[in-house]
Amino acid sequence: MKKGEQQPSAQGPMEDCALCGENAATQHIRTQQFAYREGTNEVLLNADIPVIECAACGETYTAESAEEAQHDAVCRHLERLTPDEIRALRDRNGLTQARLAELTGIGIASIKRWEAGNVIQNAALDAALRALDAAHVKVTKPRPVPRFRTTFSQDTLRRARSFDLRFFPEEVAA
Length: 174
Known about the structure:
Elements: E1 25-38, E2 41-54, E3 60-62, H1 66-78, H2 83-92, H3 97-104, H4 108-116, H5 123-139, H6 154-161, H7 169-173
Antiparallel strand pairs: 1-2, 2-3
Protein backbone atom coordinates (compact mmCIF):
# COMPACT_ATOMS: atom_id res chain seq x y z
CA MET A 1 0.00 0.00 0.00
CA LYS A 2 1.38 3.40 -0.97
CA LYS A 3 1.90 6.22 1.49
CA GLY A 4 -1.38 8.02 2.20
CA GLU A 5 -3.42 5.43 0.30
CA GLN A 6 -6.74 4.52 1.85
CA GLN A 7 -7.04 1.12 3.46
CA PRO A 8 -10.08 -0.95 2.58
CA SER A 9 -12.69 -0.24 5.24
CA ALA A 10 -16.42 0.02 5.46
CA GLN A 11 -17.57 3.54 4.80
CA GLY A 12 -19.24 4.95 7.88
CA PRO A 13 -22.57 6.76 7.95
CA MET A 14 -22.76 10.33 6.68
CA GLU A 15 -22.07 12.98 9.29
CA ASP A 16 -21.94 16.76 9.37
CA CYS A 17 -18.73 18.24 7.99
CA ALA A 18 -16.87 20.31 10.58
CA LEU A 19 -15.82 22.76 7.84
CA CYS A 20 -18.92 23.37 5.67
CA GLY A 21 -21.66 21.95 7.93
CA GLU A 22 -23.18 19.76 5.20
CA ASN A 23 -24.22 16.20 6.03
CA ALA A 24 -21.86 14.77 3.42
CA ALA A 25 -18.80 13.70 5.44
CA THR A 26 -17.68 10.09 5.87
CA GLN A 27 -14.93 8.63 8.01
CA HIS A 28 -12.22 6.32 6.64
CA ILE A 29 -9.01 4.82 7.99
CA ARG A 30 -5.79 5.77 6.24
CA THR A 31 -2.26 4.69 6.97
CA GLN A 32 -0.24 7.81 7.69
CA GLN A 33 3.52 7.98 7.87
CA PHE A 34 4.93 10.51 10.31
CA ALA A 35 8.33 11.42 11.70
CA TYR A 36 9.21 10.70 15.33
CA ARG A 37 12.41 12.09 16.78
CA GLU A 38 14.38 10.25 19.48
CA GLY A 39 17.13 12.64 20.55
CA THR A 40 19.08 13.33 17.37
CA ASN A 41 17.63 10.33 15.51
CA GLU A 42 14.47 10.56 13.48
CA VAL A 43 12.40 7.55 12.46
CA LEU A 44 9.36 7.23 10.25
CA LEU A 45 6.41 5.47 11.87
CA ASN A 46 3.08 4.34 10.44
CA ALA A 47 -0.27 4.78 12.12
CA ASP A 48 -3.81 3.96 11.02
CA ILE A 49 -5.47 7.36 11.26
CA PRO A 50 -9.22 8.09 11.10
CA VAL A 51 -9.81 10.63 8.31
CA ILE A 52 -13.02 12.48 7.46
CA GLU A 53 -13.75 13.35 3.84
CA CYS A 54 -16.55 15.68 2.80
CA ALA A 55 -18.23 15.10 -0.57
CA ALA A 56 -19.83 18.58 -0.48
CA CYS A 57 -16.76 20.80 0.00
CA GLY A 58 -14.06 18.29 -1.01
CA GLU A 59 -12.02 18.83 2.17
CA THR A 60 -10.25 16.06 4.09
CA TYR A 61 -9.27 16.33 7.75
CA THR A 62 -8.35 14.01 10.61
CA ALA A 63 -10.84 12.84 13.20
CA GLU A 64 -10.39 13.48 16.93
CA SER A 65 -8.78 10.11 17.64
CA ALA A 66 -5.96 10.63 15.10
CA GLU A 67 -3.59 11.94 17.77
CA GLU A 68 -4.28 8.88 19.95
CA ALA A 69 -3.43 6.60 17.02
CA GLN A 70 -0.08 8.36 16.55
CA HIS A 71 0.63 8.20 20.30
CA ASP A 72 -0.07 4.44 20.30
CA ALA A 73 2.25 3.99 17.30
CA VAL A 74 5.06 5.75 19.18
CA CYS A 75 4.42 3.58 22.27
CA ARG A 76 4.63 0.43 20.15
CA HIS A 77 7.85 1.68 18.53
CA LEU A 78 9.38 2.32 21.96
CA GLU A 79 8.00 -1.00 23.26
CA ARG A 80 6.05 0.76 26.02
CA LEU A 81 2.54 0.18 27.32
CA THR A 82 -0.10 2.32 25.58
CA PRO A 83 -2.59 4.35 27.64
CA ASP A 84 -5.27 1.69 27.05
CA GLU A 85 -2.86 -1.06 28.14
CA ILE A 86 -2.05 0.79 31.39
CA ARG A 87 -5.77 1.16 32.15
CA ALA A 88 -6.29 -2.53 31.32
CA LEU A 89 -3.42 -3.46 33.66
CA ARG A 90 -5.10 -1.53 36.49
CA ASP A 91 -8.52 -3.03 35.75
CA ARG A 92 -7.12 -6.57 35.50
CA ASN A 93 -5.59 -6.21 38.96
CA GLY A 94 -8.50 -4.31 40.50
CA LEU A 95 -6.41 -1.20 41.19
CA THR A 96 -7.33 2.46 41.26
CA GLN A 97 -4.85 5.03 40.00
CA ALA A 98 -4.15 5.94 43.63
CA ARG A 99 -3.48 2.32 44.63
CA LEU A 100 -1.23 1.77 41.60
CA ALA A 101 0.73 4.89 42.59
CA GLU A 102 1.03 3.60 46.16
CA LEU A 103 2.24 0.14 45.11
CA THR A 104 4.80 1.41 42.61
CA GLY A 105 5.95 4.61 44.29
CA ILE A 106 5.10 6.46 41.07
CA GLY A 107 3.24 9.75 41.46
CA ILE A 108 -0.47 9.62 40.73
CA ALA A 109 -0.13 12.66 38.45
CA SER A 110 2.29 10.70 36.25
CA ILE A 111 -0.10 7.76 36.02
CA LYS A 112 -2.92 10.11 35.06
CA ARG A 113 -0.77 11.72 32.34
CA TRP A 114 0.21 8.29 30.94
CA GLU A 115 -3.38 7.08 30.83
CA ALA A 116 -4.52 10.33 29.21
CA GLY A 117 -1.84 9.95 26.54
CA ASN A 118 -0.14 13.24 27.44
CA VAL A 119 3.26 11.67 28.19
CA ILE A 120 4.95 8.32 27.55
CA GLN A 121 6.57 6.62 30.55
CA ASN A 122 10.29 5.92 30.43
CA ALA A 123 11.60 2.36 30.03
CA ALA A 124 12.32 1.83 33.76
CA LEU A 125 8.83 2.87 34.85
CA ASP A 126 7.26 0.84 32.07
CA ALA A 127 9.20 -2.20 33.35
CA ALA A 128 7.95 -1.46 36.89
CA LEU A 129 4.35 -1.46 35.66
CA ARG A 130 4.85 -4.76 33.83
CA ALA A 131 6.56 -6.34 36.86
CA LEU A 132 3.78 -5.22 39.18
CA ASP A 133 1.23 -6.71 36.81
CA ALA A 134 3.00 -10.08 36.84
CA ALA A 135 3.60 -10.04 40.61
CA HIS A 136 0.16 -8.77 41.54
CA VAL A 137 -1.56 -11.70 39.88
CA LYS A 138 0.43 -14.07 42.12
CA VAL A 139 -0.01 -12.01 45.31
CA THR A 140 -3.75 -11.55 45.02
CA LYS A 141 -4.59 -15.25 45.00
CA PRO A 142 -6.46 -15.91 48.25
CA ARG A 143 -4.59 -17.95 50.82
CA PRO A 144 -6.50 -20.79 52.44
CA VAL A 145 -7.54 -19.97 55.99
CA PRO A 146 -6.99 -22.86 58.41
CA ARG A 147 -10.17 -23.75 60.25
CA PHE A 148 -10.93 -26.30 62.91
CA ARG A 149 -13.80 -28.57 62.13
CA THR A 150 -14.64 -29.02 65.77
CA THR A 151 -15.24 -26.43 68.38
CA PHE A 152 -13.34 -26.83 71.60
CA SER A 153 -14.65 -25.90 75.01
CA GLN A 154 -12.69 -23.42 77.08
CA ASP A 155 -11.82 -26.23 79.51
CA THR A 156 -10.34 -28.36 76.69
CA LEU A 157 -8.29 -25.40 75.41
CA ARG A 158 -7.00 -24.69 78.95
CA ARG A 159 -5.94 -28.34 79.40
CA ALA A 160 -4.25 -28.41 75.96
CA ARG A 161 -2.14 -25.38 76.88
CA SER A 162 -0.97 -26.98 80.13
CA PHE A 163 -0.26 -30.38 78.59
CA ASP A 164 3.19 -31.66 79.44
CA LEU A 165 4.87 -34.63 77.80
CA ARG A 166 6.28 -37.08 80.30
CA PHE A 167 8.28 -40.23 79.75
CA PHE A 168 7.84 -43.18 82.00
CA PRO A 169 10.89 -45.37 82.64
CA GLU A 170 9.22 -48.59 81.40
CA GLU A 171 8.39 -46.92 78.01
CA VAL A 172 11.97 -45.68 77.58
CA ALA A 173 13.41 -49.16 78.26
CA ALA A 174 11.13 -50.89 75.75
